[in-house]
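Bit of a strange request maybe. I'm writing a small parser for structure token strings and I need a real example to test against, not something I typed by hand. Could someone generate the tokens for this chain?
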Amino acid sequence: MTAVLRRLAVPRCSSWRCLAVSMRETQRLYHHVLNRDGTRVLAGGRSSLAACCRSESRWQHTEAQESVEVDLKRLEGQDEGIAEVLMCRHRARNALGLVFVSQMRELVSTLSNDSAVRVVIFRSLVPGVFCAGADLKERALMNNSESDLFVHGLRSLMTQIALLPTPTIAAIDGVALGGGLELALACDLRTACE
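Reply from user aminoacidic:
Good idea to test on real output. This should exercise your parser:
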């Protein structure tokens, strides 16, 4: 775990390198994965990849809609038992929208029942941004009752994260605004870059 924390705390290189790493991570989401029965499933398709064999893929996608905005990566080897929740909503700077929140809620409920997970790390794949808070563009399209339900859903998600039975770490590598800061505060520990 110390190695993971050191890796997260190391100052990042140039923004071009971060962008390249971020693009590689995004491209990795669109590779083909084999199910146990040998059928191919495309990440980003309509099928859920949560049923894939963990030995075939370290990535567990929670696919509820048309795109993956929150992903789960289980570390292997010496870091086995560490799960990274990766926020990868690039265009909206990890803003907390309906799809993002539902995928995050599904992942958190999966992690709360997983006895193999010892530590959960929340981090962003968007360079310079941890989480930009609520998606105000989506929020502007909601009526009052929809907005109230959305805010209630956000609060319950933060409570769900705070009540995870394993230690949680927010690896903050950029801005954490509004609900993004609430997400970081819901974690047990927070690490941040300069």
